[in-house]
Amino acid sequence: MSQPQHYIFTSESVSEGHPDKVCDQISDAIVDEVLRINPEGRAAIETLATTNHVSIAGEYRGADSLTRGRMNDIAQEVIKSIGYDQEGFDWRKIDFINHVHAQSADIAMGVDAGENKEEGAGDQGIMFGFACTETPQLMPATLYYSHRILQALSEGRRSGAYAALRPDAKSQVSLEYRDAVPVRATNVVVSTQHTPEISQAEIRAIVQQVVHDVLPQGWAPADANLFVNPTGQFIIGGPDGDTGLTGRKIIVDTYGGAAPHGGGAFSGKDPTKVDRSAAYAARYLAKNVVAAGLAERCTIQLSYAIGVATPMSFYVNTHGADTVDTVKLARVLQELVDLRPRGIRTHLQLNRPIYLPSASYGHFGREPGPNGEFSWEKTDLVEALRREFGLSAAA
Asked: Model confidence over 347-369: pLDDT tens digits?
């Protein structure tokens, strides 16, 4: 079925102070500590947060010096850095329960490499990667602008410019597409936690300015279509207002609903878990295909079986780019990157403590960092792809 050419599409985002994102950040901060101690360490960490309480569970291996007490300290540091010092969720008053334990020997046996066995996938599953030309970051515009609105509000809160705002916030952006190209925002919804002293009119003025600054010129919706704190006020927020769990914002983490999702969450998992690493590899490949000019949209699917190294399947969809032989493209991509679990980790250098920054505002469409963060966002395969398909050197 061909994609409609004129339509409205919507994506949402949540801030670093959203209850689920608090949990994602705690889980990823603990994964980072495991990898800091031992780059070959394993971890699968789940977090729950509610009123002045955090529960941490899961398993890890290869970082024996990491105690439960240190994990709790890491969680406390994350909560403090987000800015939670309110009565119902104060980094100084959190009660911790920690049930993290050693990794199952059965899982370790299936995943670990041996004398005559290549390292296998940490679980079965399907993973998707996607890229498109809607933004310079090669991300869906609806999600990109949803993220950017909240990031701008957070930056203002942290700088003191918007001192009355608090950490919990959500956004939702609806864009009109003409000839499959985004042209304007039809509706924008922003809910942001705040102190009791500030009026809703003042909050609306802040949000309105941010929306106008973030969206391209002429894209901002009419005043009647900008919805700010629709319930009237948002004073009680964060885990005090709504219990948070690791892994509940997988669409926010990926493509905002503009592309398929395999179902597996990312945060709290070391890179032997293909839920995470193979999804990063699929995005890396899809982004390079689009950046090379081979397609305006690209979707890639991978699938794995637990304990088996080689992917069960590899699928490429260039969404009607009839100048590209997708059979050849699939072959070339698999030649450029070893898609076995260890091959992905080696190529993208994933065995590093790089995951905390990915736990808020999306895992994709971010700038590669100086310490290896977001390595899957590099476009270093572009020249090789263009040569393979007879295209001139990229600008």
From this structure: 999 999 999 999 999 999 999 99
Q: For residues 102 and 43, what is the distance between their CA atoms, to the nearest angstrom? A: 9
- The per-residue pLDDT for 395 is 46
What tokens does 168 get?
């919990």
Residues facing 53 on adjacent strands: 50, 95
Burial class of residue 53 (count of CB atoms within 10 Å of its CB; 0-12, 13-18, 19+): middle
Hey, what amino acid is at 66?
A: L
**Cβ partners under 8 Å of residue 247, min gap 6:** 20, 24, 46, 265, 266, 267, 268
Closest listed residue to residue 214, CA positions, set 153, 273, 274 = 153
pTM of the full structure: 0.95
Q: From 65, 92, 61, select the one nearest 79 (Cα to Cα).
A: 92
Distance CA 144, CA 165 (A): 22
Strand residues in the chain grouped as ranges (E) = 6-14, 42-50, 53-61, 85-86, 89-90, 95-102, 125-132, 165-178, 181-194, 226-228, 244-245, 297-304, 313-317
- Confidence (pLDDT) at 1: 47
**Residue 287 corresponds to which amino acid?**
K
